Amino acid sequence: MAEQVKLFGVWASPFTRRIEIALKLKGVEYEFVEEDLVNKSDLLVKYNPIHKKVPVLLHNGNPICESVVIMEYIDETWKGAPILPRDPYERAMARFWAKFIDDKCVPAIWKACWSNDEEQENAIEEACELLKTLEAQLKGNKFFGGQTIGFVDIAANTIGFWLGILLEIVELELLTEEKFPKLCKWIDDYVNCSVIKENLPPRDKLLAYFRARQQPPTGSKD
Amino acid sequence: MGDEVVLLSIWPSMFGMRVQIALEEKGVKYEYKEEDLINKSALLLKMNPIHKKVPVLIHNGKPVCESSIAVQYIDEVWKDKFPLLPSDPYQRAQARFWADYIDKKIYDAGRKVWTTKGEDQEVGKKEFIDCLKVLEGALGDNPYFGGEEFGFVDVSLVPFYCWFYSYETCGNFSIEAECPKLIAWAKRCRERESVSKSLPDPQKIYDFVLQLKKRIGLE
């Protein structure tokens, strides 16, 4: 049966890239449709009328929205490398840490990068505390998913790749090996992992993109 | 096999009610522990060190935090009785999407209604009703968000129903006038024992809201 899989996204967005990683992990062939978030296509608005955001996965004409929801859908629909663990408690933990990354870490990092001088010190401290908490979840493993990439690793792609680029742009030394030895090692292993490496945008292109915008990356967050 | 299930929550919490409804639907015996959020218990701080919030579900000593995550956990552990999520992956994705929408929108919009006045409150009311209308659209002509069966999205939204009287009274408007289908849905849900057991009396919630307003200096 010919399957039709389309992904509506933005090349620079970590949320879009999560979906590409998940699809590649499962060996699913798909068509990528680059969206212009300033001039949203009719199709995007049709498939995501509620939020009008990317990424949107279209599977045999059925749209699925919200990156974490899409990741779970991909895991349940296609066999292959499991993204979420099998055990219900481990699954709950994976969902918790992915939510922690999205609800806490990422906003704190944006705030630390783009705060004005007075707020910046506090914002940096908060971001560091949250990253420390996340780092502890590695628990001596190579990845958050254990020996292989899992749900939390995919969700942490913002920290794995985008964070370094943003810190370079705003000239902030937040993520040092001294402060975060385990997280830095994870980042190293993460970006060198083949499925991730093949699904990262070119670093210099991304650097130029955000330098030009000088504001937090949007993508899924409009 | 003895399962030890404990739920840490506070009685007005819609998020705690979600977990209660799920446990009741599955017929799981559990111990409910009322927390004092001003003097958080050592148990709460130990079980949810990250957020220090309720609800926390503790299963055989292991904590699960965040109500939507706890409800999914309950559904997966006690999977043989009353499934809350559909079996089809696409329907599951739709259910998770709507639960996420409810999480992102309803609480904050509702909160604006009872914590603000004047122009801010009018904005809050409009936002709140707009979100409820979107949900009404998603419900369509089905008896439940899950279709014919009560499910995950119903569990996520119905606890807000006991807060509607407070929103309406503080905001001086009628939710039923704006969203009659949604109110009909809520009343239908309330006929289920799991829901009627878990939702407190709306008047009690309103008394709580008045007390809270005084305490945080909103009166």
TrEMBL record, chain A:
Cellular compartments per GO CC: cytoplasm
GO biological process: glutathione metabolic process
First-level EC class: transferase
Gene3D superfamilies in the record: 1.20.1050.10, Glutaredoxin
Reactions catalysed, as given in the entry: RX + glutathione = an S-substituted glutathione + a halide anion + H(+)
Pfam families linked to this entry: GST_C, GST_N
Family from the record: Belongs to the GST superfamily.
Protein name in UniProt: glutathione transferase
From TrEMBL, chain B:
GO MF annotation: an example: glutathione transferase activity
One Pfam family it belongs to: GST_C_2
Catalytic activity: RX + glutathione = an S-substituted glutathione + a halide anion + H(+)
InterPro entries: Glutathione-S-Trfase_C-like, Glutathione-S-Trfase_C_sf, Glutathione_S-Trfase, Glutathione_S-Trfase_N, GST_C_Tau, Omega/Tau-like, Thioredoxin-like_sf
Annotated keywords: Cytoplasm, Transferase
Domain GST C-terminal: 88-208
Record's function text: Is involved in the conjugation of reduced glutathione to a wide number of exogenous and endogenous hydrophobic electrophiles.
Protein name in the entry: Glutathione S-transferase
Organism from which the protein derives: Actinidia chinensis var. chinensis (Chinese soft-hair kiwi)
